[in-house]
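Anyone opening a protein record will find just a pair of labelled lines. A complete record is shown below as an example:
=====
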Amino acid sequence: MNIGGEVGSSSPSIKVIMKDEFVDDVLALLKLLTARKGWNNEARLNQEKLWALLESKGYIDFTGSYNDYIASAIGDSYLYDVPMYKRGYLSKFRGKRIRVVCVASGPHRYRAYMAGLVGETPPDKLITKVQRK
């Protein structure tokens, strides 16, 4: 399985993502979605609230495979220090720490994601060039 983040890949590596523990109003809503016991009207309402909240905070939206962006269930999220050489959807966040959120599912492996800034990447964590094996 291609987890991403390899040389030439535009997606995060499972080795460099962090558990989403950034405390804000988004995290509270994410916890509601991940704790749900099924997909019902309450879950749909929380999904709509999440989408609106992320849009209001300036998150970008994009689609991709969960093989590339790791999160696969609605409400799954992680933090990611975006490398300085990043290309693709997340390139506008180079040198920043972002939250990536799965906000909707689609056919097969495709999902809708949103990503937004949560802070600066600490200088000791900044990746400036491709790390080869």
Remarks:
- The chain is about 25% helix and 25% strand.
